[in-house]
Structures are given as C-alpha cells and as structure tokens.
Write a structure and sequence with these properties.
By secondary structure, this protein is of the alpha/beta class. The chain has eight helices and 17 strands. Helix 5 runs parallel beside helix 7.
Length: about 290
C-alpha cells in the first residue's frame, strides 16, 4: 500500500498557457502539462516550483484537467513570496510540475446525490469532482456544489438557472462554469455578497440536508475540502445525518511524495490509530477516521 504511488507521479516542465487574476490576489493558472493532465483525478494535486530562486515547491490542488488538450488548471491565493513569484509568470514561461500526487475522492454509484463542499482555496477539487461526475454514466449523478468564501469568489458569480429544492430561494448565486454544464452550485458568505447564503457554507449544507427525507439521505455522500474547522464541522454534519463523508486535508508539505513524513496526521484505522502522510496516503480520507465524534 505504501508504494502504490510509485511510477504514478511525473516531473515535467509545464508551459504557462493562461494566468487570470481575480480580487483578493487570487489567480487561475492554466499549464500545459500533458503527463499530469493524463493521470490527474479529483482530489489530486501538484507540487510546483514557483521561482528558480526558491527551491521549496508549493502544493496546489488541481481544479480542472483536460487529458486530450494536455492542460491542467490551478486556483491559488497569494500568501507568500513563492506564490507571488508564481503570480508573475506569463504565457510561454515554464514552471516545473511534479504530479499528480495523492489519493483522490472515491464516489460510490449507490449514493448519486453527491454534496460537494468547498471553502476558499478548497474550491478547486470540488469543481474537478463535479465535472468528472457529470461525465460518468455508471449512475444518475446529481452533484450539488456548495462554495464558501469571505473574500470575493475567483469568478464572476451570477444567478443560477438551476432550481435546487431545499436551498433558500434568496440563495441564487452560482459559479457560471458549473451552471453552463448543468451542475447545480450555490455560494455562501458572511461578507454580504449578492445572492449568497448569509452564513458559513456548512450551515447552507445543513439547511439542504435537513430538507431531505430518509430515502433521499440514503443516496447522499459528502465530499469536502477547505480549512480544518470547516472540515471538522462537515464531519459533524455527516455524523448527524448518518451519511458518509470524504475530506481532503490541507497540510504543510516539504517533499510531497511521502519521503519526509512531515505532513502526517493521526487517522483511526481498523488496526488502531496510525500516522498517515497527507501527500500520498491522502489527501483524501474518510471524515470519521480523522475527526472523532
């Protein structure tokens, strides 16, 4: 099990195709990285060298991947010198890409009502998962993507054309790229953005789940990525409604390929408590194994 990631992670020079800036020093970066694009799965991430002068790489979740065209998209927020250097990259420049890394999400066809919860820079894996679920034909997938942010969202929100029973009618703001693909999405924020649910994204998830009957809840599975307090709250909600939940953890990483064991977290397993590496044993774990009741 500890060697499953061998020969699945690639090192390549990714060429910058597009870099789009949004409010709050947020950027969407599209890189031509065909090896990574061919193997990326929702929940996996890349380790980028942001600047030749800074040897430490930065882990960034993959938001989209097009295996045919050979590109991946990443959403990030500038929080230090490394990512500030990455934000200065222009089309045509090259960025060293190590990836895709990590175990991704595992949706189960018997639970096609996928509730995807993303907070802040935890939004990218939810977008990736939602779009992949829409492409699958093994079940009648009904993904619902809920996103939360206290700074402006990294896209121009607009009223959704998709009705979502159980969501407050005044909560109508959505991500256009998902809406155009017939994927329902709703936004939550305490910053007073128009059309958004006034509260935490986990509170919006609670409202929606409370509207479902037992038969509908039996079809729900939750997937989440975001800050630890949000994931902990999501795990609590999943416990309360008796639905399975997978979470993608965020940890500081050095090597990101399992060698340094600097990103370990305590996980409850069938054999007892164990320290697991977020980079290659995760980043996706069963919520109940990470967040105890």
């Amino acid at each position: 099990m500890s060697r499953e990631h061998r020969n699945t992670i690639f090192l390549e020079d990714g060429r910058v195709l597009q870099q789009t800036a949004f409010e709050g020093e947020q950027y969407v970066l599209r890189l031509h990285a065909p090896k990574c694009a061919a193997h990326a799965q929702p929940g996996s991430f890349v380790h980028l060298r942001c600047d030749p002068e800074r040897p430490m790489r930065r882990p960034l979740s993959i938001m989209r991947a097009d295996p045919q065209a050979g590109w991946i998209e990443l959403l990030y927020k500038v929080v230090g010198r490394g990512l500030r250097a990455l934000a200065a990259c222009r089309p045509g420049e090259e960025v060293s890409v190590l990836g895709p890394i990590g175990r991704g999400f595992t949706p189960h066809p018997e639970r096609p009502r996928a509730l995807l919860i993303g907070g802040g820079v935890g939004i990218p894996p939810m977008v990736f998962l939602a779009e992949r679920l829409r492409e699958r034909t093994d079940a009648a997938w009904k993904p619902l993507v809920l996103m939360g942010s206290e700074i402006p969202f990294p896209f121009r929100a607009r009223p959704s054309r998709i009705l979502v029973p159980g969501i407050p009618p005044e909560c109508i703001a959505s991500m256009p790229a998902l809406d155009e693909r017939d994927i329902a999405s709703r936004l939550a924020s305490r910053a007073g953005f128009p059309g958004c649910f006034d509260g935490f994204v986990t509170e919006l998830a609670d409202v929606w789940l409370a509207s479902l009957g037992p038969a509908e809840l039996a079809e729900v599975e939750i997937f989440a990525c975001g800050p630890t307090p949000m994931l902990q709250a999501t795990a609590g909600i999943a416990r309360r409604y008796g639905v399975p939940c997978q979470v993608s953890l965020e940890e500081f990483m050095a090597c990101a390929v399992g060698g340094c064991a600097g990103c370990t977290v305590l996980v409850q397993t069938a054999q007892g408590p164990a320290m697991k590496r977020v980079c290659v044993d995760g980043p996706v774990f069963d919520a109940a194994s990470v967040f105890a009741a």
